[in-house]
């Protein structure tokens, strides 16, 4: 095989790079698979093969060695039972893997495999590849989330519900408006992930034991650039990140922030489907049991899991961010791999649960209107004050409105009745005009436009920004 042919074998290595994931493909299994023995071993072998090809390209090792290493970079040649047996003796993952793998290599490959490398670089780059693929899957899930939210917001852009501040009835909004705020939030989450991914894809590392390219030869920097390109990654940072791991910490912190959003939405939907509010209901399959002792109960299920994710994912992110505080050039005290696996799998699973919850959400518009009317019109007090302000100074209009509200509460009457008893109101508005001002179903044009534009922007973004 020619040197050119060796370089063309890059496809074998970059096969581990995830293809673009469609938006309607939010699945946990692909992320779980990244961390299973066979896939993880294949990633490590692909990293080793990419390094060998890069070294061959710059004349550091013979072409035939890179050919052999690339051709035999197959996880099937490093069976788990054999790896486990070797690891049980040497207690070093890289050494155990190389011992088993080398048995199948030719003399050239055996002599030059892992040439000048350090375990930290190989496993660090493999971790970067796993994170890159996990981000791709997470982004697809978030695109799914936004698409589901867009449908929900558009369907309910004119569905009035009470807006609440500090736990109290404030002013009517629409359920579509509420969901449109979530769309903006999750769009920003996608932006954060995409910005982070640029840094992840610059984090391939081939810098040697202390990060200064020692042992890698005079062409080490050029080799590292070719190494990253072989893996389908971008030109790597010159600075050594193994002593800081800030990019990995950032990954955890962004996932933690996303989980907090899940937690807040889950908590709100938990409350909104409570018996005393009853404005939404999550879909539940036939046969699902709400309570072992109270057959009438329909307990929230998905919201509880979202709340739990919002408590656990940020804790995992703390472990990754703690690892920014390292000892000198490199250390290995934190054992990041299990944490990266758990936070990645848990995060994708949480988005999937959110998408299923939103996709099957039942919105009770009648109950929403009933809840608005519980304050007997007082939630529309701002509309009255604004309308009066067209006929008198604003301060006077507000004072009259406040007085009417106080009188109504004292007399235990509704807002309309109290307004009709106030001459300073009735000289400008008759009963029909007041009914119109007090109707929460009459939604202002800017409020509708707000939702429509947010939905339109979200649908225009598609799966890939």
Give an overview of the whole structure:
The structure is a single chain. By secondary structure, this protein is mostly helical. The chain folds into 2 domains: 3-366, Fumarase C, Chain A, domain 2 (Up-down Bundle), CATH 1.20.200.10; 375-458, Fumarase/aspartase (C-terminal domain) (Ribonucleotide Reductase Protein R1, domain 1), CATH 1.10.40. It has helices at 3-8, 10-14, 29-34, 37-57, 63-71, 80-90, 93-102, 107-112, 119-155, 175-200, 220-230, 246-272, 302-322, 336-359, 365-372, 381-388, 394-411, 415-420, 423-426, 431-437, 445-461, and strands at 160-165, 168-174, 280-281, 362-363. Strands 1-2 form a two-stranded antiparallel ribbon. A two-stranded antiparallel sheet has the order 3-4. Strand 1 (160-165) and strand 2 form a beta hairpin. Helix 4 (37-57) crosses helix 9 and helix 12 (246-272) runs parallel beside helix 14 (336-359). The radius of gyration is 30 Å and the shape is elongated. The protein starts with a helix and ends with a helix. Residues 1-20 have low confidence and may be disordered.
């Amino acid at each position: 095989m020619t040197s050119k042919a060796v370089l063309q074998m890059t496809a074998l290595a970059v096969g581990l790079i995830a293809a673009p994931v469609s938006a309607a493909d939010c699945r946990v299994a692909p992320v779980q698979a990244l961390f299973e023995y066979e896939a993880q071993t294949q990633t490590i072998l692909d990293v080793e093969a990419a390094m060998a090809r890069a070294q061959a390209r710059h004349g550091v090792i013979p072409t035939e060695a890179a050919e052999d290493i690339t051709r035999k970079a197959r996880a099937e040649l490093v069976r788990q039972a054999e790896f486990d047996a070797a690891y049980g003796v040497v207690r070093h993952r890289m050494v155990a893997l190389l011992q088993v793998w080398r048995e199948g290599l030719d003399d050239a490959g055996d002599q030059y495999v892992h040439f000048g490398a350090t375990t930290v670089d190989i496993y660090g780059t493999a971790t970067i590849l796993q994170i890159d693929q996990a981000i791709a899957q997470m982004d697809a899930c978030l695109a799914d989330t936004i698409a589901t939210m867009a449908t929900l917001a558009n369907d309910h852009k004119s569905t009035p519900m009470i807006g609440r501040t500090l736990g109290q009835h404030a002013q009517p909004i629409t359920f579509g408006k509420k969901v449109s705020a979530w769309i903006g939030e999750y769009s920003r989450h996608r932006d954060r992930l995409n910005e982070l991914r640029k840094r992840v894809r610059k984090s391939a590392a081939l810098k040697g034991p202390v990060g200064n390219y020692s042992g890698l030869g005079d062409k080490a920097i050029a080799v590292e650039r070719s190494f990253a390109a072989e893996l389908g990654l971008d030109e790597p940072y010159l600075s050594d990140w193994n002593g800081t791991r800030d990019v990995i910490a950032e990954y955890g912190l962004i996932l933690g922030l996303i989980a907090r959003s899940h937690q807040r939405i889950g908590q709100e939907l938990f409350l909104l489907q409570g018996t005393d509010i009853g404005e939404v209901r999550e879909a539940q399959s036939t046969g699902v049991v709400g309570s072992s002792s109270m057959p009438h109960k329909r307990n929230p299920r998905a919201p509880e899991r979202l709340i739990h994710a919002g408590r656990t994912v940020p804790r995992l992110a703390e472990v990754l961010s703690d690892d920014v505080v390292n000892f000198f050039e490199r250390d290995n005290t934190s054992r990041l791999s299990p944490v990266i696996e758990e936070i990645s799998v848990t995060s994708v699973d949480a988005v999937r649960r959110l998408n299923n919850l939103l996709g099957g959400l039942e919105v009770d518009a009648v109950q929403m209107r009933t809840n608005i009317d519980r304050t007997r019109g007082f939630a529309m007090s701002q509309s009255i004050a604004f309308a009066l302000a067209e006929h008198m100074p604003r301060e006077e209009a507000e004072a009259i409105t406040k007085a009417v509200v106080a009188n109504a509460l004292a007399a235990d009457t509704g807002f309309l009745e109290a307004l009709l008893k106030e001459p300073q109101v009735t000289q400008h508005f008759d009963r029909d005009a007041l009914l119109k001002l007090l109707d929460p179903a009459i939604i202002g044009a800017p409020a509708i436009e707000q939702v429509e534009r947010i939905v339109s922007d979200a649908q225009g973004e598609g799966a890939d920004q």
